Please model this.
Amino acid sequence: MDYVNKYFLDIIKKHYFDFSGKECRKVFWLYALNCFIASFILNIIWGTLVVIFALAIFFPSLGLLVRRLKDAGFSGWFALLLLVPAIGWIAVLILVCLPTKNK
Model:
């Protein structure tokens, strides 16, 4: 249960609209894994719950993405690449996979 609190619920509760600071790769990918598992379970239960869940985690996920981009040494504005059709999400995926830049 501590795993779920640390890598999922704390991000949603404590950093709901937080775009400042930095976040490591481990926290980013474990949050993404938890979101995927929760979405999968909610889709099995009732498909509409996935839409509600996605809307509920939109801002925490965006904030986490911006913090991860800052940790990798990029501006948070690079998250806007997600708006570029077809290749934008690939570029963002590559950026969040890069190691932490020590400053």
